[in-house]
């Protein structure tokens, strides 16, 4: 089946309901923001009320969670905004929202069979993720694809200056970009906070920074390469960032 090359998915258009083999929810709701057989990556948004609970059963696919707002408790650890949690294939996990509730994003790859079945759960608190200012922006690597049991990649960028335009380029992996703050301009579309942009691997694209600057997160199911338009050179993205001095986040096990 041919995958859709680009999908624009505002959170306001998401359909309610837990995805296939999804978690059990208590005092919360699930919104399927990107799904279907032609979407390379599925994205589900979860909203938990204060004290709400979410239980993930074992699955054949890895789940990557990003805490957008609020706080969740998993085992003895607390994860606030910008935290990243990885539930590897074959693992189970439970989380409970803090006193202000929690908003979570769940990313799952939808192309082919899962290559890794580590069965572990691990993550890092948002406040512990190293960040680096460079070239008029700030970057952080929440997961560097070095995990033997998952291979997940997640980075974030904050570009404060309006009008900045990225060079036309493509990547070797499927990706989903989510606007966290500010505005992204992609073609004629102005994408605000909560909007997701799915880009299939080997698809040329670019975007500009709109009003208020732009902060976004970027998920890939494995270690990506960057290819500039008109070039055949594949540049390893982790090497690009580490050459500038950016240190990737170090995950710790979560026992739930």
How would you explain this protein's 3D organization?
This protein has 256 residues and is mainly beta. Helices cover 3% and strands 53% of the residues. Strands 2, 3, 4, 5, 6, 7, 8, 9 and 20 form a nine-stranded antiparallel beta sheet that branches. Strands 1, 10, 11, 12, 14, 15, 16 and 17 form an eight-stranded antiparallel beta sheet that branches. Strands 13-18-19 form a three-stranded antiparallel beta sheet. The protein is globular and about 50 Å long. The mean pLDDT is 96.
Q: State the share of residues found in helices, binned by percent.
A: under 10%
**Beta strand count:** 20
- Biggest sheet: strands, sense, closure? 9 strands, antiparallel
Assess the beta-strand content as a share of residues: over 45%
What value does the average pLDDT take? Answer: 96
Question: Shape, please?
Answer: globular
User: Ends: how far apart?
Assistant: 37 Å
List the main descriptive attributes of the protein structure presented here.
256 residues, mainly beta, nine-stranded antiparallel sheet, eight-stranded antiparallel sheet, 1 helix, 20 strands, globular
Helix-strand blueprint:
Blueprint: E1 6-9, E2 15-16, E3 24-34, E4 41-56, E5 63-74, E6 77-79, E7 84-87, E8 93-109, E9 121-124, E10 131-134, E11 137-144, E12 153-159, E13 169-171, E14 175-186, E15 189-191, E16 196-199, E17 208-220, E18 225-228, E19 235-236, H1 237-243, E20 252-253
Antiparallel strand pairs: 1-16, 2-3, 3-4, 4-8, 5-6, 5-7, 5-8, 7-9, 9-20, 10-11, 11-12, 12-17, 13-18, 14-15, 14-16, 14-17, 18-19
């Amino acid at each position: 089946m041919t995958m859709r090359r680009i999908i624009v998915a505002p959170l306001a258009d998401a359909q309610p309901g837990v995805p296939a083999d999804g978690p059990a929810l208590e005092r919360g709701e699930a919104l399927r923001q990107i799904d279907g057989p032609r979407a390379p990556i599925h994205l589900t948004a979860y909203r938990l009320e204060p004290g709400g609970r979410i239980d993930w059963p074992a699955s054949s696919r890895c789940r990557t969670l990003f805490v957008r707002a609020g706080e969740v408790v998993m085992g003895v650890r607390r994860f606030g905004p910008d935290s990243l949690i990885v539930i590897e294939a074959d693992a189970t996990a439970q989380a409970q929202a803090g006193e202000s509730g929690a908003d979570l994003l769940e990313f799952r790859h939808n192309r082919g069979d899962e290559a890794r079945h580590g069965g572990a759960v691990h993550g890092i608190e948002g406040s512990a993720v190293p960040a680096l200012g460079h070239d008029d922006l700030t970057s952080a690597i929440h997961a560097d694809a070095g995990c033997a049991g998952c291979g997940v990649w997640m980075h974030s960028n904050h570009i404060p200056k309006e009008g900045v335009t990225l060079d036309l380029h493509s990547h070797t992996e499927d990706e989903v970009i989510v606007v966290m703050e500010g505005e992204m301009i992609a073609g004629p579309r102005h994408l605000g906070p909560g909007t997701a942009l799915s880009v299939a691997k080997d698809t040329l694209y670019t975007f500009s920074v709109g009003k208020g600057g732009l902060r976004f997160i970027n998920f890939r199911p494995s270690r990506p390469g960057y290819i500039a338009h008109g070039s055949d050179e594949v540049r390893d993205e982790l090497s690009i960032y580490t050459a500038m001095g950016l240190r990737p986040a170090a995950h710790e096990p979560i026992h739930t």
